[in-house]
Amino acid sequence: MTTEILNGNELIIQGALEAGFHLYTGYPGSPLADYFNILYERKNEFKEKGIRVVIANSEANAAAMASGAKQAHKNALVAMKSMGLHVASDALSVGNFANPGKGGVVVVVGDDPWSISTSSPADSRYLFKHLHIPFLDPSTPQELKDWMKIALEISLETSVYQGVLLTTFLAEGGGRVEIGAEKKIDKELIELNPAEFDLAKNVMVPPNSFRADISMIKERFPKVFDVLKAKKLDQIFGNTSSKVGFITSGAVFEILKQVLDDNDALERFSLYKVGAPYPLIDDLLVPYLKTLETIIVVEEKRGFLETELRELMSRHRITAKIYGKRFDDVEGFPIYGGLNYDLVLDKVSTVFNKLNLGACHPSKHGVTLSEVMPRRLPTFCPGCPHRETLSLLKDLRGHLKKQNINLISHGDVGCYSLSFLEPFKEMHNLSAMGQGGALGAGVDLFTTNPSVVLMGDSTFFHSGITDISNSVQMSHDITYILLDNDNTAMTGHQMTPRTGESVEGFKRPAQDMLKMVQALGVNEAIEVNPSDRYFYQNLLRETVMKKGTKVIISNKECGLTFHGRKKATERKLFNNNGTLDVQRFYQINTDACEDCRACVEMTGCPGLSQTFDAYGPKVTIDPQICVSDSYCTKIKACPSFELVEVSNYHPTKYRAREEKKLASVNLPLPNQKKTLESIAAGVDYRAVVTGVGGSGVTTISRVLAEAAKAMGGRSDVDFKFVDQKGLAQRNGNVTSHLALYKKGKSHAQVTPMGGADVLLSPDLLDGSHHLGFLSDTGMAILDKKFQIPLSLLLDRGVEKNPVNEITLANKLQGLLKERITLLPMKEVSENHLGKSVYASALILGAAFQMGLIPFSLDDLEEAFARTMKKAELENNLTAFTLGRRLALGEDLRIEKQEAPMIDLLFASLRESSIFNGSALVEKAKTALHELKTITHGQGIKEEHLARYIHDLLIFDRGLKFDTFLAEAKKLPSLYKDQEMFAMALRTLAKTYFIKDEVFIAHMMVSPMRRLEDEKNYRDLGTSYKKVFINRPSFDLGDKKVEFDFSPKPWMLKTMRHMRFLRAALPAWHKEERRIASEVRSRILGKALDFKELRALENIKGYRQVRYDMARHL
């Protein structure tokens, strides 16, 4: 036998290959989302073996297909998530009671006890029983793989469908398993003779269904008891002479056994592991139960196993006391959610104390920050077309609200379910998959609100088409927005009937949703490109208020697949030292940005980030995340966005690199804190890896998992892992737990609190959320920076200043002292390799060099070679080496020479003047000296003070300098706290100038911008040019004139001198001037508290955005 590292979905498929299934079907859904991706990757292999693979339109379709395969005397495997079992239950019930052929059927269901990625906290054990489907509950990766074969054997021997149940941490986790021989299947097609069919068994209608019920109860299902008894899947551990026994099953067994082992409890008590919770086998369990006086049942969710035990004990008149969901008068193991090591330890301690059996060792809690850090919520990926629809729904809601009309958004299941989160909140309810329209019908029958339903393309084919038909037949006034992104995207980009390729790789007709809905007889149907914002905006405004059933199909490919292909093509080009003719980047001119965050509010794009200048936070674009889809620029709430086109682009070709820094010559090997030898002797090793989805976090766990495959040639060490992905395809948190331990021991999938030897994160914020996993001697290696989460961008600091990288780093270093290492991994990765994503390999290198990885250098380098695409291997190995060098103390950052900011500001003043720039600079220096005197001891940077002076001079040549300085002198007596004083000063300074078209013209072509552009783009190509994305506005009498315009640099250089327009157009920006005057008077009128002052500072933005923010004045 060979040894492999496989995850839960891979184990299902490997076990199925060893069992001998002819058909693999089901429907994608977490935690079994990867099931079909793996099958697609292996499509040629499966085709050669004669195995058929079908992604059914729904779980019910898959269940019915399995019944058909059984009739053809073939074996079928059906995989789905817990909610899918609900959908499939009708077809499963009919198929199970029928007995049309000799094939076996195994139904694998992934439950989600923690509700990490599921809309309903389902417990599939109850539904399995309801359907008369016995099920196995494997505990370990090895059992999951092996029991797939056993499950098929049970089905074949009994003619009854057989279930296999696994939960999230086993499905998304995995470990080191021994692989068996695959079973060849008969791939020849057969011809059935209908004359030989036993229709009484095949056709479930009365009276056949009644006879089938009798046959199931009296003949077929009793065989299950006999087969399970013969399989002997149950196991007993510990002291079998004890009067106290634990009973459990599934993945919980590993958690419970580790708790008991850690407390030496199995020397005093016994532990019974049930292989099949339904049905329980009397002959196996009763002899054990009769020896006990006290039974402690440990299981997740409701007390299914406990109830089954109570029924069995009642029949056999066994009187032992059961502790499970209740410990007499107190709550026992929770009836909601899942279980982990710490929960089980706590409850076992409680019951031990209650029974006077002695307490368990106290649990370790690890260290945590006293301050609550902002959470990283899942959100739509960069370039996601759903964001474009939701942005316009939010716009539509505002448009209708002005008419006193409230729009209702009905929910459905898919990526777009995330629309209930900030910043959109465009989902007001949610029903089962494909039932959002029917849910809406129930609401709309009794309300006057217009309504919309969001529905995905795969959801449409799953069952959503019946929703639309239902609306048509009941004359429902509703608008369906079908989000066609060419993928079942949320579960990992499986194909849909809309795509022209099957999971087996065959070409097939692409089913046309537009023609299908038109055939249903809807009142109106149209297909749009959601990127066409203005057409789509007008269409929505017109359509939603019309009568009847309307359908809008938003057709644009998923951003991940589109940009994934694009990046793969570019990667091949760059690896051959080729260049792109033109690469486009979007950026924000932070001198023009007002930090109004309209772009954030209307897109929620994770490519939008944050920086800080003299006026506080500003929005910026993170080029490592942005995919240049340009949607943020279409909001056009400000003139800050710019397009930069780089010619002959290559991410690293033009950069001067010191190649000696990238070489790995003579790097010393580390002294490992824990070795494979010490682990084999019984010293466990735990690592927790966490970060942002899509940033390479799973690369770390993949490499470590692959290294565990070799394990230095050892067979006495076991390995287990779990990747907690949740809802995050991208930009939510992803956390991996990895464990190495002595072969034969049991281990919980998730690290106990205070149990990790190392915490690794290429993101400072995500790492800070997981400190509690660190042991007393554990080490944390985190990046110095963090990707700004949407929650932070939406936090305007009304109560207090949001956390930033510097303050967070200081808190962590103060808490962990020498046990934390902060390294500039993303910066070094981007500087040397062109992408920050290689920070994942850097952090592995740093951890290895610090002795925190128990694998050898050879094992790790070979693991990289086996897990990486050939085109990515060199960069990842280089990054690994860079990480080792960082750990050794080398400074690998590439510092770019920058002119001092104050010098740049003075150069800007000179450039802004037609005649006497030097006089303007002297005026600035005099004013700066006076302002420094006023602010002495307040901790404000001199360059910030210089910025205030510069902006007043640019605006009107400092006509109100004296007034500004006089009023600034009043601030120290009003605001004695340094933070409050700084906020008051910068807010006061902003009241002395308006960012009108004249002012902004200079800010677009200033020396500060030119230097910033040079720094960012000089080394990316042979040349670059900028396109300004602008929408100027002028008040001409009672009329406002706005138009899209991309000015040339010469136009801007001319416009910056046209200050006379302010006098010529007295109504121009009149409201802005009024707001500025009111803000100024309030700052100086009396001492304001933090909240009041921040409310004034937060009056930002251009035109209507600012007016709306100033309504409270």
CATH superfamily of the largest domain: Thiamin diphosphate (ThDP)-binding fold, Pyr/PP domains
CATH topology of the largest domain: Rossmann fold
Strand-residue proportion: 15-25%
Cα Rg: 33 Å
CA-based shape: globular
Cα distance spanning the termini: 76 Å
Return residue spans where pLDDT drops below 50 for at least 5 consecutive residues: none
Strand order, largest beta sheet: 1-8-26-27-25-28-29-30
- Let me know the largest β-sheet: 8 strands, mixed
Q: Helix tally?
A: 44
Number of individual domains = 5
**Average pLDDT, all residues:** 93
The helicity comes to 40-55%
Q: How would you classify the helix and strand content by structural class?
A: alpha/beta
Structure summary, number of beta strands:
33
CATH architecture of the largest domain: 3-Layer(aba) Sandwich
CATH level 1 class label of the largest domain: Alpha Beta
In a few lines, what is going on in this structure?
The protein is an alpha/beta fold and 1113 residues long.
Keywords:
alpha/beta, Rossmann fold, 5 domains, six-stranded parallel sheet, 44 helices, 33 strands
Topology:
Elements: E1 2-7, H1 8-19, E2 23-26, H2 34-41, H3 43-49, E3 52-55, H4 59-71, E4 76-81, H5 82-97, E5 105-111, H6 124-130, E6 135-136, H7 141-158, E7 162-167, H8 168-171, E8 173-179, H9 199-202, H10 208-231, E9 235-238, E10 244-249, H11 251-262, E11 270-274, H12 282-289, E12 294-298, H13 304-315, E13 321-323, E14 326-327, E15 330-331, H14 341-354, H15 385-401, E16 408-410, H16 436-444, E17 451-456, H17 457-473, E18 478-484, H18 513-520, E19 524-528, H19 533-543, E20 549-555, H20 559-575, E21 580-588, H21 598-603, E22 608-613, E23 616-621, E24 641-649, H22 659-662, H23 676-680, E25 685-692, H24 697-710, E26 717-724, E27 733-742, E28 756-761, H25 764-769, E29 774-783, H26 790-793, H27 805-816, E30 820-823, H28 825-833, H29 839-849, H30 857-867, H31 870-887, H32 901-912, H33 917-934, H34 942-956, H35 961-968, H36 971-974, H37 978-990, H38 997-1005, H39 1007-1017, E31 1023-1028, E32 1033-1036, E33 1039-1042, H40 1049-1055, H41 1061-1064, H42 1070-1085, H43 1090-1097, H44 1104-1109
Parallel strand pairs: 2-3, 2-4, 4-5, 5-7, 6-7, 10-11, 10-12, 12-13, 16-17, 17-18, 18-20, 19-20, 25-28, 28-29, 29-30
Antiparallel strand pairs: 1-8, 8-26, 9-11, 14-15, 21-24, 22-23, 24-31, 25-27, 26-27, 32-33
